[in-house]
Amino acid sequence: MACMKLGAKSEAFHREGQTWLCTTGLPSDVIIQVGEMSFHLHKFPLLSKSGLLERLIEECSGEEGSACSLQLHGIPGGAKAFELVTKFCYGVKIELTALNVVILRCAAEYLQMTEDYEQGNLIAQAEVFLSEVFSNWRDSIVALETCEEVQRYAEDLHIASRCIDSLAMKACADPKLFSWPIVGGNDDMKNPTATILWNGIVSDDAKPQSSSDDWWYEDASLLSLSLYKRLIQAVESKGMRPESIAASLIFYARKYLPLMNRQSSFNDTNYVNSGTTISNISEADQRALLEEIVGLLPHQKGVTSSKFLLRLLRTAMILHASPSCRENLEKRVGAQLDQAVLVDLLIPNMGYSVETLYDIDCIQRILDHFISINQASLASTSPCIIEEGQLMSGTDPLTPITMVANLVDGYLAEVAPDVNLKLPKFQALAALIPEYARPLDDGIYHAIDVFLKAHPWLTDSEREQLCRLMNCQKLSLEASTHAAQNERLPLRVIVQVLFFEQLRLRTSISGWFFVDNLENSQNPSGNLGLPTKNDVSGQVEPAQDRAVGVDHHDMRERVLELQKECSNMKKELQKLVKTKRSWSILPKRLGFRKKWEPCSPKESKPSDRMAPAPAPAPCCNGQQNHDNS
Fold it and tell me: How many CB atoms lie within 10 A of CB 171?
């Protein structure tokens, strides 16, 4: 820490209780009361340097021979500052440091210690040293902290604003271009390797210890909230990158908001009034700090991580922050919901009337905001653009709406075990996702299955209403196999699953046979492309010959596998027919024959009446046309 030495005389005062006495041997002729401290001094050293003391002493109308008594209770810095001022007036050695220069500068201004009374007066000396302080990063931080002790005078003299401007300039610049120390603590305030510069100023030669973008976060976090806010506004006005500003705010929030460092838990409310490793922070102070942090966050999308925003939102609910603060956070999360992860969405319900374990209403508002701000892009996305093969295989690119759909399906599966979760609320959240946003409906099927398991009292109509959230045509083979054996699903849904799985298998088998027939038609001799004895010019390379053979072998194995799966499904279907009387008309409705012939148009009508959703009808018709062809 830099310092400036003033004066040359040795100590000329000693303290007795609450009294300061001068040891020059001359009786004191003025007594100045500052707070609880009394200073027994002499008029001349004070008159020659302070305009205020000169005027007050002249106005003192004490009797001749009696000491003049003055009251200076309003001096900035109190008795501690006046003690240093007194030593300066008497020429006693003092040191100006970043810890006391602001207070001395304000006290000198209060006492009117200008150049009109003496050259090199305290105001001028303090300003010279302040310029040196502003050139050093750590000293500027220390000086800015002391401004709070004399806030009104520091603001009037623009000391705080000059210090903040100096810090902002350094934070925005490349630290490698300067020699100010960057990271430090109280242990290195006095450097034994310090050197004495001109005019008695002492400065250390510390070099920057870090050159990364976050070098200033730790020192800036030492400031109070009001000063830190002004510093952030200053660096923003000087063009600092929003990412750096957001990172500094995250650092500050994690330091003073203990709940930010905890995972989502229903026990978080037990730590609202707990202290941090720094100091005990009240709930009201934490609430005010959080609301200020939210207001300072950059508005650019993606600058602040969704993880941090969701933790801020969870903390805001625990601390009962203002509705505008929570709404602000919900909109920020909604703008980049596709970047969130499931664990951060599991926000415990902190309302006074807790109905569900997790705050589902909050997630629904976030999802509503995501849908609203992406309305244009969602409207331009047509389900017809996505091919059926992509839907079934899941090879469609993960667009933001697709990522959000997967996120919401996972969230529904997590909250579904809550027995207090009502069916309408579950449906409302799931229905916000457009149907074409899900390449596969395995996620929503899993959530529905978990909900049915946790709510066994649902009626058949409620079960069917719940299952309308998924499309049986968009279930994978694994999910279809599970659904076909799921006793929790309504009978109508199981029939749909079996029908579409049978349809898919028959279509796949027909496709393989079509390829097989096409290959055979190109090789009438039936020798899979091998040259005949009379065909001299048509010679096939051995490698190509082996490749063709391998392809046909793989194709035939795949056909056998599909036939085996079809046979297994037929057996499962027959078991269901035997175990459930209501399934006695199932083979007729599905159009099955003993030899599994395709259904005729007349026989397909009952199946159409049985299907609950309009989707099976065109598929059935498509299958019928395929068979007729």
Answer: 24
The H or E element that residue 313 is part of is helix 306-318
The model's pLDDT over 427-472, given as tens digits with 9 standing for 90+, comes to 999 999 988 888 888 999 899 999 999 999 988 899 888 888 888 8
Residue position matching structure tokens 């090789």: 523
Q: What HEC string does 377-429 produce? A: HHHHCCHHHCCHHHHHHCCCCCCHHHHHHHHHHHHHHHHCCCCCCCHHHHHHH
Task: Say if residue 224 is exposed, middle or buried (CB neighbours under 10 Å; 0-12, 13-18, 19+).
Answer: exposed
Q: Round to whole Å and give the CA distance between 10 and 100.
A: 20
Residue type, 281: I
Q: State residue 181 phi and psi, 5-degree precision.
A: -70, 145
Average the pLDDT over each of 73-87, 126-140, 448-462, 551-565 and give the range with the smallest value.
Answer: 551-565
Provide the residue type at 407 as one letter.
L
User: Each residue of 326-353: b (16+ CB within 10 Å) or e?
Assistant: bebbbbbbbbbbbbbeeebbbbbbbeee
Pairing of strands 68-71, 195-196: unpaired
391 neighbors 474 (Cβ within 8 angstroms): yes
d(CA 135, CA 114): 24
CA dist list (Å): 75 to 13, 80, 96, 189, 260 = 20, 10, 18, 28, 42
Which among 535, 512, 537, 510 has a CA at the least distance from the CA of 524? 535
Do 15 and 37 meet the contact criterion of CB atoms below 8 Å apart? Answer: no
- Give the closest residue to 366 by CA, choosing from 398, 328, 334: 334
Average pLDDT over residues 554-578: 65
Structure tokens of 238? 């000087």
Handedness of CA 352, 422, 418, 445 (dihedral sign): negative
b/e per residue 435-467 (b: at least 16 CB within 10 A)? ebbbbbbbbbbbbbbbbbeebeebeeeebbebb
CA angle 323–328–330, rounded 5-degree value: 95
Please tell me the pTM assigned to this model.
0.72
Q: Copy the structure tokens of residue 143.
A: 């000086």
Distance between CA atoms of residues 169 and 175, nearest Å: 11
Highest mean pLDDT out of 203-212, 257-266, 539-548: 257-266
Phi, psi of 326, rounded to the nearest 5 degrees: -65, -40
Count of other CB atoms within 10 angstroms of residue 226: 12
Structure-token pair, residue 529: 């492309």
Determine contact, residues 232/249, Cβ cutoff 8 Å. yes
